[in-house]
Amino acid sequence: MLFPQSTYIERRRKLLDQISDGVVLFLGNNESPYNYPANTYKYRQDSTFLYFFGQHRSGLAALLDAETGEEIMAGDDVDIDDIVWYGTVKPVQAMADESGCGRRVDMATFAQRVRQAAAEGRRIHFLPPYRHDTMLYLSDLLGKHHSELRAAASVELIKAVVALRNIKSEEEIAELERASAIGYKMHTAAMSLCRPGVTEQYISGVLEGIANAYGSHVSFQSIVTMHGEILHGGAHDRKLEAGRLMLCDAGAETNEHYCSDHTRTSPISGRFTTKQRDIYTIVADCHDLALTHARPGVRWWDVHFAVCRLLTDRLKELGLMKGDTEEAVRAGAHALFLPHGLGHTMGMDVHDMEGLGQTYVGYDDETRPSTQFGTASLRFGRRLEVGHVVTDEPGIYFIPDLIDLWQREGRCADFLCFDKINEYRDFGGIRIEDDVLITPDGCRFLGKDLIPYRPDEVEAYMAAHQDKLPL
Ligand SMILES: [Mn+2]
Q: What share of the chain is helix, strand, coil (3-state, %, to 5)?
């Protein structure tokens, strides 16, 4: 357990305060097979289970009674065969005691207890399952078809969990800082190794090794690519080419599963060309602009659009866009270059709580999601509060298929200079990303040391650290 027992007791008390009646189920994660049952992926506990109970073992569940306040942890103790192969682990009762739950039952009793509550007509609250074995288990337990489960999840519970997990406490921020420190090692390593002839896959592998060596795992599959215009493109075995850019979007999870998420874009030759530097500087200025706007009470939606307006103004100066900036942004013309949102929540999930439903996490009655291309991918729009952690990740991409489609359709033709844009079709893409904590006075980036990102700093760092891994 990462935090003192009182932290978990307090979190569960605050949760139950928001649930009017019924029982609340939490299912921890099970081992997940890779290519046969006993050969598994590295184990990862469910984030919400960790948040409320702090226990990492597979095969656990819990039940909270919203009316009586009873708290039960469920799990089967391991037998001698497991002990021979995997060593001894704490009995479930000891884990329940540690978490402050008091009572422990085995999984059969847990199922009986849930069925009994259902038979009495009590409400059964559960979160939307995202793993298939959990879906099958819930489907059997509740007698619902697996395809109905996500829709049957409790909105009351989702909202209560989101309200708690969206606000990071001091002790959680300290853990996020640790994740950022691992991210710093990963990204500076990538910059040190970035040069012609090295494969994307090699750099991605080194990053994964650093994440595993200092923490639990990468917080998502690393994006290390010369094709930065492919937003979530993975690393390939192709060799980095002189004159191009390498986009690296990667993060780590600490052993207790708090995440980091940073992106840097480096010139493979060690120096930016004039064309690259022009675009890079716009992205860097957009990245910095978010810092001056984000503070409690401001909508992240408005920070996003302030960035879109700056991006449009600057692309007009380069002759890539034209017309009135406000009208261009309203029409969504900037989304040809920036088809995603400025940032997303981050915490124990790198897209924090995305599995609970993005609209519940990032939007509310006041701020509703958009359906317009580009803005529809803004995962967070609501008013900022102290303790929110959100990524700041503007980018500019030249996506040949998207350029061709918009040009063919004449889409936003009043604002886009397609002849000029086509001169950039082999450019790739640039993104710069850091993680922002909202503070009482405004905001700050997480991470004691900020990974170099101003163009001169990037070039200087690469020149001084060629092949010197900062381990
Ligand atoms: Mn991100």
A: 45, 15, 40
DSSP-derived secondary structure for 111-148: HHHHHHHHHTT--EE-PPP-SHHHHHHHHHHHT--GGG
CA of 344 to the centre of ligand 1 (A): 7
- Dihedral of CA 321/322/326/327: which sign? negative
Ligand 1 centroid to 449 CA: how many Å? Answer: 18
A 10 A CB-CB count for 140 gives 11
| Fold assignment, 5-165 | Creatine Amidinohydrolase; Chain A, domain 1 (3.40.350)
Q: In angstroms, rounded to a whole number, what is the distance separating the alpha carbons of residues 434 and 262?
A: 5
pLDDT more than 90, % of the chain: 95
How far apart, in Å, are the Cα atoms of 46 and each of 60, 84, 342, 404?
10, 26, 27, 42
Work out the average pLDDT over 44-67.
97
Instruction: Tell me, in angstroms, the distance from the centre of ligand 1 to residue 401's CA.
Output: 23
Domain coordinates of the chain in residue numbers? 5-165, 170-464
- What's the pTM? 0.95
Nearest Cα neighbor of 450 from 460, 465, 464, 435 is 435
pLDDT value at residue 467:
78
Under a CB-based contact definition with an 8 Å cutoff, are residues 179 and 251 in contact? yes
Tell me the pLDDT tens digit for each residue of 122-159.
999 999 999 999 999 999 999 999 999 999 999 999 99
Centre of ligand 1 from the C-alpha of residue 99, in Å: 32
| Distance between Cα 4 and ligand 1 center (Å) | 30
C-alpha 329/C-alpha 312 separation (Å) is: 7
The model's pLDDT over 185-225, given as tens digits with 9 standing for 90+, comes to 999 999 999 999 999 999 999 999 999 999 999 999 999 99
User: 170-464 belongs to which CATH class?
Assistant: alpha beta
